[in-house]
Write a structure and sequence with these properties.
The protein is an alpha+beta fold and 405 residues long. The chain is built from 13 helices and nine strands. About 7% of the residues have low confidence. The structure holds zinc ion (ZN).
Length: 405
């Protein structure tokens, strides 16, 4: 056989071998015997061993890793990411432009612009799950608190898992959580702007979004909380195009379910379940523990207290007062007694005495339960109170029922 004929045969064998390889790698059956029979004699042994190698690979390593559906999914994901990145670049450009336009409401303008853009490039199948549950009515009055508490726990767990996934996906390895890393990973633009009375807002087309934080908020920890809250709206409620949050939405009494959820999310994102020290929740709550959380996670004292109380196995609550009047309270699951808002602090409370100029005590004090709660269930059981006055007339009181044992 001439050199030329040999080379041609070898090339033909290589081509057949490639076809065999392709067929096996994409999960199809291929006939090796026909391939080997058609092969020139002098390379038959080599081809036979190459075919065995391919068969071994397909049998032991390959099938679990690369299937056609996986190829397809991967390609789709890459395409989706490319498309989102294009949208994101466009959003960035528009977000900067709207603030230069002469308009009374740049946020609404941006929402209109990106809303239109999204309609021009329709995408489907990415509707985020809505976590706002419909509780319905009709439950027995007695069962209600139990149902409410169980429902709240479930919802918190679901949101906590989601926040933890997002933190992990973004590559956050330890506290404090780098929110810019999280935002980048979610294709969220974060900008600081003049927002008037709005503390923070989110504009989204359902796929990418922009978070604006008020330039007037100088407190870094408060800004972090607001940013985490807006990220929460993006993750949980992005079927709505615009969210505008006032201070009350963020820090006041629970409002709409979406605001409650965004606040839970913010707390879980800033203090993710797997990064919070295991002692929090088990040890008797204290402001010292809350301080540990504030330093570790760069959150405000109130955010730290709320997280600690949410995890607590104790009957405890945080009561926030301003200028001597109770503004709001957050209670642990086991704390059933009612704390009245919009009433002056009881004269017997540590908070009242601190506000009237007394010097803070070294240790938490025990006070009568009716100082803090309406008609306590067991009036023999005192309450342990720790209060810190934090400025602007605000005082944070951490109260815990002292169990008899
Ligand atoms: Zn909100």
């Amino acid at each position: 056989m001439s050199d030329h004929a040999q080379r041609r045969q070898a090339a033909e064998a290589a081509r057949k071998f490639d076809a065999y390889l392709d067929a096996r790698l994409t999960g199809n059956e291929a006939d090796a015997s026909a391939l080997i029979a058609a092969c020139p004699d002098d390379i038959r042994d080599d081809l036979q061993s190459a075919v065995s190698c391919v068969d071994d690979y397909v049998a032991y390593a390959h099938p679990f890793r690369i299937r056609p559906s996986v190829w397809e999914r991967t390609a789709n994901r890459i395409e989706e990411l490319r498309r989102k990145r294009r949208f994101f670049e466009e959003l960035k450009r528009r977000a900067s432009a709207v603030w230069d336009e002469v308009t009374t409401d740049p946020i609404a303008l941006l929402a209109t612009q990106i809303g239109t853009r999204n309609q021009m490039s329709p995408v489907g199948g990415l509707a985020p799950p809505m976590l706002v549950l419909n509780r319905g009515g009709g439950s027995e009055a007695v069962a209600r608190p139990i149902v409410d508490s169980a429902w709240r726990r479930l919802r918190e767990q679901a949101i906590g898992r989601r926040a933890q996934e997002i933190v992990d996906d973004a590559g956050v390895t330890g506290p404090p959580v780098d929110l810019m890393l999280v935002a980048r990973d979610l294709l969220l633009l974060v900008q600081v702007r003049d927002l008037g009375t709005i503390e923070g807002c989110l504009v989204t087309d359902g796929e990418v979004g922009a978070v604006f934080l008020n330039r007037g908020t100088s407190n870094r920890r408060r800004r972090r909380y607001t940013c985490a809250h807006e990220i929460g709206h993006f993750v949980l409620h992005r079927s709505s195009p615009v969210f505008r949050d006032s201070i009350n939405d963020l820090y006041g009494q629970p409002g709409s379910p979406t605001e409650v959820e965004a606040n839970i999310f913010a707390s879980m994102l800033l203090m993710p379940p797997q990064l919070v020290p295991a002692t929090i929740g088990h040890l008797r709550p204290s402001l010292e523990q809350a301080d540990t959380l504030t330093d570790m996670f760069e959150v405000s004292l109130e955010a730290a207290c709320r997280r600690m109380i949410g995890l607590s196995h104790w009957r405890c609550a945080l009561v926030v007062s301003k200028d001597g009047v109770i503004e709001r309270a957050v209670k642990s699951d086991l704390f059933e007694s009612y704390i009245k808002a919009d009433v002056p602090l009881h004269r017997g409370s540590v908070a009242a005495s601190l506000l009237s100029g007394a010097s803070p005590a070294e240790d938490p004090s025990e006070v009568d339960p009716w100082v803090w709660v309406e008609s306590p269930a067991d009036d023999e059981m005192p309450i342990r109170e720790e209060t810190r006055v934090v400025g602007d007339g605000y005082a944070y009181s951490l109260i815990t029922f002292v169990d008899p044992d």
